[in-house]
Amino acid sequence: MTARERADRSLASSFERYLQDKGKGRGGDGGNYRRNAARELERFAEWAAADRGRDDWTGVVPDGVDREPAFEDLDERIFREYARHLAGDRGLKQNTVQTYYRYISAWCGWCVNEGYLEAHYAQRASAMAPLPEDDGRKPGDQQAWTSEQRHELTRHVDEQARNAIETYTTLPADTAPLDKQRERYEALKAARDRALVFVLAYTAVRVGELLRDPNDPRRRGVRWEDLSLDDGSMDVYRKKQQWDAASLPDPVISPLRSYRQLMDPPTERWPVFPTFDQRTLAGLVQDELADRGERPEAITERREEYARDLLLALAEDIRPPSITTDGARSILQRLSEAAEIDIDHPKHDYLAPHGGRRGMGEVLVRAFGYTVAARYLDNSEEMVRERYSHIEAGELGDVATEALNEVDSLNRT
Fold it and tell me: Which residues form the Core-binding (CB) domain (predicted)?
């Protein structure tokens, strides 16, 4: 295809190939980046066709021409207009504007490499001029659990799990089977929540490395086979797209060991943190038993023998999916409210999963410095220094205060 033929093609004709190149997994059909980029490309295409934007915006196609927006219509002036549209017409926060523009800019750069465009117009100074200043912060990525918050939350889930497990394990011998199952289910749920909170609070593992991501087939959530409680390690699929061992410090071992003993998973391939969503489990159990040749009447009778479908799944080794990252956020919202934790944050009114990682980063930097913290956090030392620069700034401020006090005391004498 010649450069002229590429220039004549519609913008949308390039999207799928670009997204496949940027996607993850087999066929490039997974990953959060692909999903977010697809959304912004669609919005850009709608804006270019005058289906989005100001009432007086006529799009990028010249007047009197009846066709879809094509690459020949793009230049730095068009990207400047889109930057202005993002910054003003949509009322977005400044960092969000920067993020959305970067998706379009990345696609523009790809188009240059593929021969659709002659130059990377989106990166030219005149095109980027309307964008607001980027203060270097990522939206919603600044919460860090304080030591007090971490202790309050872990104390709450530990108490809830201990009470639920004690209630279940001390039931009278003549307790009805369904009543006993209900107590086991409550104990399992409390033990799962405790284990999840402790892992998020103390390992600094990214929540996307720990749980299932519906947009990335490789992130299916950690399984029991990935954990070595004796060695204090856990294999996770890292952000850098490879498997690696993460540390399980002492506070995490006991909750996980107790939880595993209570669950007694049929195989090591069971997820450590399975979903407890009743609708999901009901459909899963019915479909799996049907695939095994069970008749509908028999499936109904079998389900009636159990207080919850999760317990039937355990008995029949019907492996449920792991909870998702969104599921973890819902759990932490529920637990933060139940624990009545005081939270002062502009975006989150609960202890968000990433806050556990950032909070652990604060502890490590203060206790052992940037090098050790970087290894534990699976980040470069440069990035850790950048993200936790406020700690060094505070320490330097203390040094300056001490120096001023010393000089002032000398002058007074």
Answer: 6-112
Q: Which ranges of 1-140 does DSSP label H, i.e. alpha helix?
A: 3-8, 15-22, 32-48, 76-84, 94-114, 125-128
Confidence of residue 27 (pLDDT cuts 50, 70, 90): very low
DSSP state of 243: E
For residues 108-112, average pLDDT: 91
Confidence check: pLDDT of 399 > 50:
no
Distance CA 344, CA 346 (A): 7
Three-state DSSP class for 1?
coil
Cβ atoms of 101 and 86 closer than 8 Å: yes
Answer for the pair 31, 67: CB distance below 8 angstroms, yes or no. no
User: What are the residues facing 220 on neighbouring strands?
Assistant: 212
Quickly list H helices, 238-380: 250-263, 278-291, 296-304, 309-316, 325-338, 353-368, 370-377
| Structural contact between residues 71 and 12, judged by C-beta atoms closer than 8 angstroms | no
Residues 4, 1: Cα–Cα separation, whole Å: 8
Look up residue 282 and give its two tokens: 């009901």
Residue 62, judged by CB atoms within 10 A of its CB (0-12, 13-18, 19+), counts as exposed
For residue range 118-130, what is the model confidence (pLDDT) as tens digits?
889 999 988 999 9
Tokens 């806050």 sit on residue: 355
Reported as a single tens digit per residue, the pLDDT across 341-358 is 888 777 778 999 999 998
Query: For residue 298, what pLDDT band results from cuts at 50, 70 and 90?
Result: very high
- Where do we find the tokens 């973890």? 328
pLDDT above 50 for 318: yes
Cα angle at 138 between 135 and 139, to 5 degrees? 105
Q: Which residue has the tokens 């750069």?
A: 109
Rounded CA separation 60/69 (Å): 6
Q: 3-class secondary structure for 207-219? A: HHHHCECCCCCCC
Residue 267's H or E segment, with its range, is none
Sheet architecture: strand order including 233-237: 227-228, 233-237, 243-247
Asked if residue 292 lies in contact with residue 242, where contact means CB atoms within 8 angstroms, the answer is no
